[in-house]
Write a structure and sequence with these properties.
alpha/beta, Rossmann fold, ProC C-terminal domain-like fold, 2 domains, 8-stranded mixed β-sheet, 12 helices, 55% helix, binds 1,4-dihydronicotinamide adenine dinucleotide, binds (2S)-3,4-dihydro-2H-pyrrole-2-carboxylic acid, cytoplasm, pyrroline-5-carboxylate reductase activity, EC 1.5.1.2, NADP, amino-acid biosynthesis
Length: 268
């Protein structure tokens, strides 16, 4: 029996497998994965040394934990395909926006163990942020095990299911906004004469350091911002332009749109 099986090893599946392997929580031979894309499957086998299969039913029958790392529109197809192979000891984990615990139970049975999660791609470098919701069929020991898996590639927190759309906006999707920010900052550094490789390093490390300041010091982000803005200095010039150009309101509108999209998927 494999400890964990991934159906789908695209961006998110690969990131989680990479995080689990890096943290050594499971050995490569305790993990199995499947993907319709043969190149991708040989890639994860080659890079991580895990087992692979083309047989979805074999994976479902032989994995104690199954992670459905496919797009939300494939969920029902896969669940219908594997439902007879899911035992009462199997834990089925969703990582997709809009896929509720109930919608999975409706297909595989409400007597089965289902966990809904929302990870993010920084899992690949063990800096993921994940939310986890547990159904009442999952025991305390199983909850702790899943928390341990998700904590192996970053920070993981139990949240109530009603917060999951919000989680998509604030952590599932947010790495994309941050990459856009890094790209923009690096482009301007290049414009001002810095070589591109250095520009990415300077921009990314500044964002990582600032995030670490928020997490490690517990100081309010506004106070941390004020600590950078010298009176009559350079930073307040930039901050004033960001306010003028609607920086915060752009982020607010973008995230509201993301959360709305996630809740629209859920209500379908
Ligand atoms: N990419 C991200 O940052 C995040 C993605 N998610 C969720 O993770 C899930 C996967 O997303 P990505 O990895 O980004 O997508 P992706 O498109 O990179 O990977 C999905 C993989 O599923 C495979 N696939 C499709 N049908 C299949 C089938 N019938 N059997 C086996 N494999 C099949 C595809 O070949 C593909 O490699 C989605 O539900 C997404 O919403 C959640 C959090 C973050
Ligand atoms: O864009 C998406 O739909 C997925 C969910 C969170 C991140 N990527």
């Amino acid at each position: 029996m494999y400890k964990i099986g991934f159906i789908g090893c695209g961006n998110m599946g690969k990131a989680m497998i990479g995080g689990i392997i890096n943290s050594r929580i499971y050995k490569a031979d305790e993990i199995i994965a499947l993907d319709l894309n043969e190149c991708l499957l040989s890639e994860v086998k080659g890079v991580f040394g895990i087992n692979t299969t083309r047989d979805t039913l074999y994976l479902a029958e032989n994995s104690r934990i199954i992670i459905l790392s496919v797009k939300p529109n494939i969920y029902n197809i896969i669940l219908n395909e594997i439902k007879d192979k899911i035992s009462h000891d199997t834990i089925v984990i969703s990582i997709a926006p809009g896929i509720s615990i109930k919608s999975i139970e409706d297909v595989i049975g409400s007597d089965k163990k289902v966990i809904r999660t929302m990870p993010n791609t920084p899992a690949l470098v063990n800096e993921g942020m994940s939310a986890i919701c547990i159904s009442n069929k999952v025991s305390e020991v199983e909850k702790e095990e899943v928390l341990k898996i998700y904590s192996s590639f970053g920070i993981a927190e139990i949240v109530s299911e009603k917060l999951m759309d919000c989680v998509v906006g604030v952590s599932g999707s947010s790495p994309a906004y941050v990459y856009m920010f890094i790209e923009a900052m690096a482009d301007v550094a290049v414009l001002a004469g810095m070589p591109r490789d250095k520009a990415y390093k300077f921009a990314a490390q500044s964002i990582m350091g600032s995030a670490k300041m928020v997490l490690d010091t517990g100081i309010h982000p506004a106070a941390l911002k004020d600590m950078v803005c010298s009176p009559g200095g350079t930073t307040i010039e930039a901050a004033a332009v960001l306010e003028e150009m609607g920086f915060r309101s752009s982020v607010i509108s973008a995230m509201k749109s993301c959360i709305k999209k996630s809740s629209k998927l859920t209500s379908k």
